[in-house]
Amino acid sequence: MVDIRIPIGFMFSILGVLITVFGLTTISDTEMYVKSLGTNVNIIMGLLMLVFGLVMLYFAWKKKKA
Questions:
Q1: What spatial distance separates the first Cα and last Cα of the chain, rounded to whole Å?
Q2: pLDDT digits (tens, 9 = 90+) for 52-66
């Protein structure tokens, strides 16, 4: 039986990396972030998604090892 945390972890990790890289490449575009009060939401949400994905993969790996 496949643990659901593995595909969820991979999906969130990949999307988190993509969104974080997009946020880092558009960090100098101040007009893009006017609606979010100058905050680069892409970096913040990308990092949160990456951390969540890595936590899911860690828990799946930890259960598989036990």
A1: 16
A2: 999 999 999 988 776
Dihedral of alpha carbons 32, 34, 37, 38, sign: positive
Structure tokens at 28: 């100098």
| pLDDT value of residue 66 | 65
Percentage of the chain lying above the pLDDT 70 cut: 98
Give buried/exposed letters for 32-48 (b at 16+ CB in 10 A, else e): ebeeeeeebebbeebee
Question: Judging by beta carbons within 10 Å of its beta carbon (0-12, 13-18, 19+), is residue 62 exposed, middle or buried?
Answer: exposed
